[in-house]
Amino acid sequence: MDELRKQIDEYDNQIMTALDKRYDVVKQVAKYKEAHGLPVLQFDRMTQLVDRLTETYGSENLSSDFIAQLYDLIMHHAIELENETIDD
Ligand SMILES: O=C(O)C(=O)C[C@]1(C(=O)O)C=C[C@@H](O)C=C1
What are the residue boundaries of the structural domains of the chain, listed by start? Predict the structure, then answer.
């Protein structure tokens, strides 16, 4: 059990590290959008992203509903961060 929990901890660390890096890039995207007068919200991109992830990673473990919900949360936080970055 300890060994299994260690594996879970390690995957959780990887998820957090990847999310932290993702949001660093999101803030760079916000600066680009600000400089070029582009809107923060890009619905087409959001749809394409979830479609691609569902196609590539959809499985018994990762249902399309789960992927959609997870990325709804991840992208909504990205939108909040972008708005904060632009307001600063
Ligand atoms: O690709 C962008 O334009 C982003 O700002 C990144 C991102 C995302 O989190 O993937 C966030 C907000 C947009 O609505 C679309 C996608």
Answer: 2-87
